[in-house]
Amino acid sequence: MKKIEHIGIAVEDLNHAIPIYEKLFGVPCYKQELVASEAVKTAFFLIGDAKLELLEATESHSPIAKFLEIYYQVTFTL
Fold first, then answer.
1. How far apart are CA 2 and CA 68, in angstroms?
2. What string of DSSP letters covers 8-56?
3. Is the CATH number 3.10.180.10 carried by domain 6-77?
4. Where are the domains of the chain?
5. Predicted model pTM
6. What tens digit of pLDDT does each residue of 11-49 get?
7. Whole-angstrom Cα distance, residue 15 to residue 18?
8. pLDDT at position 78 over 70
9. CB of 56 within 8 A of CB of 62?
10. Partners of 43 in the β-ladder
11. Cα distance from N-terminal residue to C-terminal residue, the chain
């Protein structure tokens, strides 16, 4: 593997998580979006050449909601 494109982290609440990650990495969230087809809200951070993506479920049936039921808040994608 030569490069990590992005890392995804499932979170329960973006409004709570964003300031924590901004402080942790010293960079602002540069983009937020709603992906209705996936029932998820996302927030992105640029850290070096890689992106960090936080994902919050908007519906209880979404893959992120189901993932959080099992694993709570851990790395979701690489």
1. 29
2. EEE-S-HHHHHHHHHHHHT----EEEEEGGGTEEEEEEEETTEEEEEEE
3. yes
4. 6-77
5. 0.85
6. 999 999 999 999 999 999 999 999 999 999 999 999 999
7. 6
8. no
9. no
10. 32, 54
11. 11
